[in-house]
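Tokens for chain A. Residues wanted.
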């Protein structure tokens, strides 16, 4: 089997594994994300009724005027904020995040964090007040704890 078919099979297995655990309802819809090289797309989906409640893309006219390129983290943040704004206007406060077959980092993570900061709770980041566009400040001098390696015991003969 060639490498491209193998890649698509792995992606399909990952997506199925994620989606087996996620179901969107009217009260708690599924926030589905699709990422292409040039753009990012996000939808709030009610799986019970098979309806898309809201959708935002970096390819829309409204979003293209605000950004130069739709395939970067800044575009993902803008899409996440816009989706949260639309969801809050429709009375949706919480959503289940569906990352599909993508890893939760980079543009996917930025979109989820921006939506959470915008008022749509879809990650476990409700407690933090940090903006997704700014890295965490470590100005207090607190260094992360690291495990210190203990010397290995040597055998005596």
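Reply:
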């Amino acid at each position: 089997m060639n490498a491209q078919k193998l890649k698509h099979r792995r992606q399909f297995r990952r997506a199925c594994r994620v989606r087996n655990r996620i179901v969107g309802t009217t009260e708690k819809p599924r926030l589905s994300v699709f990422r292409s090289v040039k753009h990012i797309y996000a939808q709030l989906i009610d799986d019970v009724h098979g309806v898309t409640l809201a959708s935002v893309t970096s390819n829309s006219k409204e979003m293209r005027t605000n950004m130069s390129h739709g395939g970067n983290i800044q575009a993902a943040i803008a899409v996440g904020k816009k989706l949260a704004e639309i969801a809050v206007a429709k009375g949706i406060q919480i959503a289940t995040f569906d990352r599909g077959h993508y890893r939760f980092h980079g543009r996917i993570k930025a979109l989820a964090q921006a939506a959470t900061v915008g008022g749509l709770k879809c990650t476990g980041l409700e407690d933090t007040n940090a903006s997704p566009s700014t890295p965490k400040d470590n100005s207090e001098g607190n260094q992360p704890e690291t495990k210190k390696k203990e010397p290995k015991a040597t055998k005596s003969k």
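Residues 3-19 form the longest helix (17 residues). The longest strand covers residues 40-46.
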